[in-house]
Design brief:
The complex is a heterodimer.
Chain A: H1 2-20, H2 27-55, E1 58-64, H3 71-87, E2 92-98, H4 107-120, E3 128-132, H5 136-147, E4 153-159, H6 160-165, E5 172-177, H7 181-191, E6 197-202, H8 206-222, E7 227-232, H9 236-244, E8 250-254, H10 268-278, E9 283-284, E10 297-300, H11 303-318, E11 329-330, E12 335-339, H12 340-346, E13 358-360, H13 366-369, H14 371-418, E14 421-427, E15 432-435, H15 437-442, H16 453-459, H17 462-478, E16 481-489, E17 495-504, E18 514-521, H18 523-550, H19 552-577, H20 584-612, E19 620-622, H21 624-641, E20 645-650, E21 657-659, H22 661-678, E22 688-695, E23 700-706, H23 714-719, H24 735-745, E24 749-754, E25 760-767, H25 770-775
Parallel strand pairs in A: 1-2, 1-3, 3-4, 4-5, 5-11, 6-7, 6-8, 8-9, 12-13, 20-22
Antiparallel strand pairs in A: 10-12, 14-15, 14-18, 16-17, 17-18, 19-21, 22-23, 23-25, 24-25
Chain B: E1 7-11, H1 15-27, E2 31-35, H2 38-44, E3 51-56, H3 64-73, E4 80-84, H4 89-97, E5 102-105, H5 110-142, H6 146-156, H7 161-168, H8 172-186, H9 191-201
Helix pairs in contact in B: 6-8, 7-8
Chain lengths: 776, 208
């Protein structure tokens, strides 16, 4: 380094001397110039001494224990070279030599190589020596001076066992590789839980032997439960044949194979590949380099990491760290490494791998290789698909909407027709009618008659026309709904009841003259209604008959009394007339009594007949008090028979009312008979029915029947009006139901309650009709 | 007009019927007393008047049968004729058992009614007659002294004077005197007559 500076200095002096020979104007100038030049030269030389340290490259010699054919050594060396060049702050010159000591362990070869190095690098000063592989360690120890006395040595790819076996001075340091064959075995056992046999394969070379021993020790220490076979010292061909016959539940562990039993030399990686190819069972190895040849995996480091770690150490030393301060380090990059493709081939499950396993050679997916392209393509395709889908969806929806609209229309028309409903719309401004075909059928219009307002109106029964038109006009004028029932004359003369429901379009100002609605055929309903009415009348009548049947004895007695009087009077008169001088006054009186008694009997019979008659409901003026009196008369004998006393309290200012006397008498009869029935267990002296009438302030007429029975229980009170609910042993449970119906038909209501002093009060209120009084 | 027959007590709550029946019976010469309710009859009627009662069976308050019971309970022996609108058998049986003369169904013919009344009259008359005779006999027995009555019961039992004297602890002669007085007071001539009379009066012979 200094040498360069001296050379420059010399050059500077020569330049000055050259200047001397130039004819310059004065010595003084010459002296000044010379001094200045010297200053410059000194300065420059100092500067160049500084830059020389950078310019002069640091030299590193890499010594391979093996020759270049071993993949591992190449990987390590390449990693070292790459790392050094990347990280070194100084310029580096890297030399490399393959000592091939592993294959040629004889001392002659070593000496030969040492001489080679001395001669080759006689004038080269190395700042560092890197030794790859353990066989280079004894060599460098022996011949370090050949390369450079005391030059720092960094080794790589030396096993811990080797390192511990040879004592090294502190200026030789490096990366110790650690191997754990037992861990690889554990990996194999994990992947092949069903394995029953372990075959360990190793070569016959001295190097192989070292691996064999180390591996056997480790495996035996682990004490596997597998049947363990050590296939050492086989010929290469025999080995391949043997592995091909292995059962598949075997774990094959391939150690190293530098030479076979016949001394044939091999590169272990090639043998690993051949064994893996031939083997009928999965093969596991020890080294990273085996991965990719067909073996399943190994617990190992990468050779690259080995190189990188050694390079890092070398860099530290090159940057000035004292080599003696750097103890050897273990390679930290140990891991389970497996070949995904091979695992797949053997059907080994990745889930059986130990955690943190590194899976290599995964089929690089399209995704891995062209992620962005794939993403972009997917995006474009996705976008396009979305667009297409959206368009399809829209189209489908539109079509569905169209279909459902059509279906809905059809359904509506069908439903309307099925329900015997016709749909229509009428515009008063244009007098136009839109109507479904069903309307035509409903109105009995032939197919050739157009559906217009006039044809429809013409079909309506004449008496109903004005009313229907009036109602619909009212709906349009009042913007509201309207309902009216009309009769339609069918071509065959039958009448059909049609309910017209109309709705004005009040919400739409543009359709103010429009009326829409439905026609409903209610002929059946009307028929059913009248049938129900008929039935109701029938039941009412039957109940009356049944009540009268119950009373037949009492009623007979009521007729019998006047008959008795008549007979006796008549016989008395007859006897009187047989006398010589008949007492004609007495005879006349007898006859008058006969007439009176006959009237009396006739009245009972008349009342009875009207109650028994099955007549239409009438509306005539009624005196409720008279009804009460008639009722008590009818019931007189029955009351006597049941030892019941009846007491009436009738208001004399009752307004008249309109109603059906027979039906109302039936109600009274029923209520009084209920009162009588209620007192069956009341002591004889206490059996009293009180019937009272009064005009209420609300303008109604009230009639109450009170008994001295046990009264009503709450449950009875709530259910007594239900049909077929009865508290009597032989009751039908229709009495009060019918009474209620009758009273309601008269615009009144039935009441049931309990009296505070005991007993029940049943009664009804009926609206009075003042106009009837006025009309009279 | 015939002379007034017995009295008929008519009880019916129906004024028309009451009026017609009384007219009919009055024309036949009966004295008629009418009552519109059983209660009025019970309180007002005079049991000493001979005659029968015609009662309506169904009346408010107290029906005919109950009225009959009330009458009997009160010691009346007045014959009763029932009139009924229904004429059901159980009621008529009850009435007849209770001593009714007849049970007639309304409307009743005058012949049926009068026949029943005539029977009732006879019944009433005989009752009243036997009642009067019994009263006489009882009055005669009543004048016997206790000793005479005692001797009489022994005589009726068929004992001889000697036996009676032994029974009563006296002499035959005394018994003979008592016996003679008894026969005299009662107005009988033979022992057979005495026995018959004692039987009518319900006096039982002495038990030995």
């Amino acid at each position: 380094m200094f040498y360069l500076g001296i050379r420059l200095l010399r050059a500077g002096s020569n330049l000055v001397r050259t200047c001397d020979r130039v004819d310059w104007p004065g010595v003084r100038y010459t002296r000044i110039l010379r001094g200045a030049f010297l200053l410059i030269v000194v300065t420059f030389s100092l500067l160049s001494a500084e830059s020389r340290a950078n310019d002069v490259p640091r030299r590193v010699l890499i010594l391979h224990s093996f020759n270049y054919t071993f993949p591992a050594t190449t990987i390590v060396s390449e990693a070292i070279r790459k790392r050094l060049l990347e990280r070194s702050p100084q310029r580096l010159e890297i030399e490399a030599e393959y000592l091939d000591l592993a294959r040629r362990p004889d001392e002659a070869h070593a000496l030969r190589m040492a001489n080679f190095l001395r001669e080759k690098y006689a004038n080269v000063h190395f700042d560092l020596v890197v030794v790859i592989g353990f066989t280079g360690i004894p060599f460098i120890q022996k011949y370090r001076d050949v390369v450079g006395p005391g030059v720092p040595v960094v080794f790589s790819d030396v096993t811990r066992a080797t390192y511990e076996a040879i004592k090294l001075p502190s200026d030789i340091t490096g990366i110790i590789s650690e191997y754990y064959p037992e861990k690889t075995l554990a990996l194999a056992e994990g992947l092949q839980p069903g394995a029953r046999r372990l075959v360990v394969i190793g070569g016959s070379d001295s190097l192989d032997r070292r691996w064999r021993e180390a591996a056997r020790k480790a495996i035996e220490a682990r004490n596997p439960k597998l049947e363990t076979l050590y296939w050492f010292d086989l010929t290469y061909d025999a080995l391949l044949v043997d592995v091909s016959r292995l059962p598949s539940d075997t774990i094959v562990m391939f150690l190293t194979f530098f030479s076979d039993s016949e001394g044939k030399r091999f590169i272990p990686r090639d043998v690993a590949a051949a064994v893996a190819k031939a083997s009928a069972a999965p093969v596991y190895g020890l080294f990273e380099t085996y991965l990719g040849t067909g073996i399943v995996g190994a617990y190992t480091y990468t050779y690259e990491s080995l190189g990188t770690a050694a390079a890092d150490m070398a860099l530290e030393i090159l940057s000035g760290t004292d080599v003696t301060k750097l103890p050897p380090r273990a390679n930290p990059m140990l891991a389970f490494r497996v070949d995904a493709g091979v695992m797949d081939r053997w059907g080994l499950k990745q889930r059986n791998l130990p955690p943190d396993s590194i899976v290599l050679f995964k089929e690089p997916s399209l995704w891995d290789e062209h992620r962005n392209l794939v993403l972009a393509t997917l995006f474009v395709v996705g976008l396009q698909s979305l667009l297409v889908a959206a368009l399809l969806f829209q189209r489908r929806r539109r079509r569905q909407a169209e279909i459902s609209l059509k279906e809905s229309e059809e359904r509506m028309t069908f439903t309307a027709a099925s329900a015997n409903i016709g749909l229509w719309q009428f515009d008063r401004a244009t007098n136009e009618v839109w109507a479904t075909e069903h309307c035509r059928a409903m109105f009995g219009l032939p197919g050739d008659v157009p559906l217009t307002r006039d044809t429809l109106v013409a079909a309506i029964y004449p008496e109903d026309r004005e009313m229907a038109i009036g109602v619909l006009r009212g709906a349009i004028a009042g913007h509201q709904s309207a309902v009216t029932d009309v009769r339609v004359v069918l071509p065959d003369g039958r009448l059909r009841w049609v309910r017209v429901r109309a709705r004005a379009r009040a919400d739409d100002p543009g359709a103010r003259n429009q009326l829409s609605g439905i026609f409903v055929d209610i002929t059946e309903q009307k028929a059913a209604e009248s049938a129900a009415e008929l039935q109701r009348e029938e039941v009412t009548h039957l109940m009356r008959v049944s009540v009268l049947g119950e009373l037949s004895g009492a009623i007979a007695h009521e007729v019998n009394q006047p008959l008795t009087a008549i007979l006796s009077n008549a016989q008395a008169a007859l006897y009187l007339l047989t006398q010589e001088s008949p007492n004609l006054v007495e005879v006349r009186e007898a006859l008058q009594d006969i007439v009176q008694e006959d009237n009396r009997a006739g009245e009972v019979v008349h009342r009875l007949r009207s109650l028994l008659k099955k007549g239409e409901t009438r509306a005539e003026p009624i005196d409720v008090n008279e009804l009460v009196n008639q009722t008590t008369t009818l019931l007189r004998s029955e009351m006597i028979a049941r030892q019941i006393v009846v007491d009436t309290d009738l208001a004399d200012d009752l307004p008249a009312m309109l109603g059906d006397p027979v039906q109302l008498q039936q109600v009274l009869l029923n209520l009084v008979m209920n009162a009588m029935d209620a007192m069956a267990s009341t002591p004889v002296g206490r059996r009293l029915v009180t019937i009272s009438t009064r005009a209420t302030q609300a303008g109604t007429i009230e009639a109450l029947v009170r008994d001295r029975g046990p009264g009503l229980t709450p449950v009875q009170g709530s259910r007594l009006f239900e049909p077929f609910y009865t508290t009597k042993e032989h009751g039908l449970g229709l009495g009060l139901t019918i009474c209620s119906t009758i009273v309601q038909a008269h615009g009144g209501k039935i009441t049931l309650s309990n009296h505070d002093a005991g007993g029940a009060i049943a009664g009804f209120t009926l609206p009075a009709q003042e106009f009837m009084v006025a009309a009279q | 007009m015939t002379e007034s027959l017995s009295t008929v007590f008519l009880v019916d709550d129906d004024a028309g019927v009451l009026k017609a029946l009384s007219r009919l019976l009055r024309a036949r010469g009966y004295d008629i007393k009418v009552f519109t309710s059983p209660q009025a009859f019970l309180t007002d009627h005079d049991a000493s008047i001979p005659g029968c009662a015609v009662l309506d069976v169904s009346m408010p308050g107290l029906d005919g049968l109950e009225l009959q019971q009330a009458l009997t309970a009160g010691g009346s022996q007045r014959p009763v004729i029932f009139l009924t609108g229904k004429g059901d058998i159980p009621t008529s049986v009850r009435a007849m058992r209770a001593g009714a003369i007849d049970f007639l169904t309304k409307p009743v013919s005058d012949a049926d009614l009068l026949a029943a009344i005539t029977r009732a009259e006879k019944d009433d008359a005989s009752t009243r007659h036997s009642n009067a005779e019994l009263d006489q006999i009882n009055a005669r027995f009543a004048i016997l002294t206790p000793r005479e009555r005692e001797v009489m019961t022994h005589v009726v039992a068929g004992r001889l004077n000697k036996q009676i004297a032994g029974d009563l602890g006296t002499v035959e002669k005394t018994i003979k005197v008592h016996r003679g007085r008894v026969m005299e007071k009662l107005g009988v001539r033979s022992v057979a007559d005495l026995v018959r009379l004692a039987e009518k009066a319900g006096i039982s012979p002495a038990k030995l």
